[in-house]
Specification:
Number of strands: 4
Strand order of the largest sheet: 1-4
Number of helices: 0
Shape: globular
Order of helices and strands: EEEE
Oligomer: single chain
Structural class: mainly beta
Number of domains: 1
Bound molecules: FE2/S2 (inorganic) cluster
Helix content: under 10%
Radius of gyration: 12 Å
CATH architecture: 3-Layer(aba) Sandwich
CATH topology: Ribosomal Protein L9, domain 1
CATH class: Alpha Beta
Distance between the termini: 14 Å
Length: 74
């Protein structure tokens, strides 16, 4: 993935999401299936609460799917 700022996303309680980890999705930060054949798969997670979250778009977070500020580090 390239250096990209996180994307603010309104996550809904009870919903299941697939966070893109390959960097090829046209629907970032969510998986659109573009990873097929890359050997990378999305992180699927169920959201427990309604939350306005900053989801990682650089692929370097250590707290996926949420941003941990790694995009600011060189
Ligand atoms: S499109 Fe990137 S993980 Fe699915």
């Amino acid at each position: 993935m390239s250096d990209k700022s996180p994307i603010k996303t309104d996550l809904v309680a009870g919903a299941t999401y697939a966070w893109c980890r390959c960097g090829q999705s046209k629907s970032a930060p969510f998986c659109d299936g573009s990873h097929r054949g890359s050997g990378v798969s999305p992180m699927v997670f169920k959201q427990e609460t309604n939350e306005a979250a900053w989801l990682c778009a650089c692929g370097r977070t250590g707290n996926g799917p949420r941003c941990d500020g790694s995009h600011n580090k060189s």
